[in-house]
Amino acid sequence: xxxxxxxxxxxxxVLIVLVASIITTHVMSEGxxxxxxxxxxxxxxxxxxxxxxxxxxxxxxxSSTAQSQPSSILSSSSSSIxxxxxxxxxxxxxxxxxxxxxxxPKPIRVAFQGEAGAYSEKSLRELLGPNVIAVPRPNFESCYxxxxxxxxxxxxxxxxxxxxxxIHENYDLMLRxxxxxxxxxxxxxxxxxxxxxxxxxxKIKYAISHSxxxxxxxxxxxxxxxxxxxxxxxxGSAKMISSALKGDAFGRExxxxxxxxxxxxIASDLAGLTFGLECKQEGxxxxxxxxxxxxxxxxxxxxxxxxxKTPCKTSLVFTLPNxxxxxxxxxxxxxxxxxxxxxxxxxxxxxxxxNYLRFKNAVTYSKQATSSQKYGKDLPRFRYLFYLDIxxxxxxxxxxxxxxxxxxQSDYCRVLGSYPAKSRLVGPVAEAGExxxx
Length: 438
Prior knowledge:
alpha+beta; five-stranded mixed sheet
């Protein structure tokens, strides 16, 4: 008897759900105020819609003929409840939106300077994974514009090289655009000798690449009697040879005397894969300590996602008055608070920023009836910006006090970003990268 009761229990539950669904549907279509419990004395009855009574009666009769098959009632009835739409007042219907078991992760679009297969592209794939969308741009400023206009999410920009020094154009562009550093990556540059498939290396007469790459492979080329010829880009040189093999117009951009039969390109192995060239030798650079530091720039910072256990850096830029001990006093803001510094560099400021400071200086001192002005009547022709990297987050109390102290001495100070050190990722870029590379 008890087992017979348990067999009927699922059917009873489904029957209750169906009756409740029918009542709700009719009440919503005709107005719920008509079917509130009666307030008549001695009566606790509820008025049901007329159409609902007939539907309930038919459901009960059908369930009594199929009590031996409760699973079929459950599957058919529940599917009808889920698929049906709920009538609303005025004849409209409300249908629940379909749900998906898994969501597709949003792709990350990252701008870089150069052709596809450039060292910048290889660097961003090392940092963010192979599934990001790399967007090539012809020059550095177009990368900044792509992020500022929300065409891309981030831009990966080279900032300094261990052999060639700082890339000053990107320092100037960081001041011009309101972007923030969210990560850094030290990329090991390994130059490759790329040729058409099956070519004999003894027939190579010319090597084409960017002038800096050619200079970094000078000893290798001299030892083999290969003449270096400079072009606009490393990966672009590989593209020239590939285009010449296909008979495309871009192949005619190769320097005079160069053909795919006597010319090799010096570029990354990724450029060889991109343009279908064969890598004859990897690591042909003269110095194996060739590293380029890249900065990942975005529209929003990640300082709030850093914690005490995450090694981090803060990059800032500031100007100082031309007075004795000014630099010493500015660095004391950090050293007196035991804040470690990893880099300091000075650079002449851009004309735009210099004009801004001239304007600010004129407005400030035109209101003061004094002959002793901080910079005299005019700012000097040459003013210098100081770029500083410290090994702490800008949100640390000591760093905030140091920055407050520095701003008292400087007429321009800007934090370029607080970010995790040594190719670590935090915040939205880390979450998006993990979702793409799962």
